[in-house]
Design goal:
alpha+beta
Amino acid sequence: IPGIIICVVLATLALAAVAFIIERNRPSKEYADLYAYYGIEQDMMAVVFDGEIVGKTYYFEDEVYLSMDFVMENINDRFYNDSGRNMLLYTTDTQIYEIPFDSAGFTLSGEVVEAEYKIAVKVDDTIYISVDFLEDKSFYTYKIAENPKRLVIIPDETTIDSIIFTEDAKIRTEASVKAPIISDAGTDEMN
């Protein structure tokens, strides 16, 4: 009888160890709070630049804007704030664009050119520049992703690596099966 008891105790311990190991290595099914992951609130838009989450941006009236500081540091350094005339200047080798704040247009070589959106807006002391205008004057492309809203900026010189999944896969916040899921592979190509 003592041998049977020892066998039962060992079998129980072995089953408990196997169950512990299985549970420890089982992937999490928890989905991440994407608003927290991108560091934004419901009414904000995150900025993903060259694959990195770099902050949030300003948008209104269906137009997306980036701060002039971000633009100058990362995208295009040919913008100047002419605070005396309350406008933004954009220069090329041969031309100067005069862009009044909160105006849907600009002056180029003395001619007024109308736009379908406000090119530059000033909120408090921060200047924001339309991504549509920037895309025409800079070397990058962008996409708007939803849920949550985010602006994905891809510099033209960036090489985008891709993967073909042969089975169901999850994209996670970290390289761990226990990390929360950002998306199911193949359902959201903008992460």
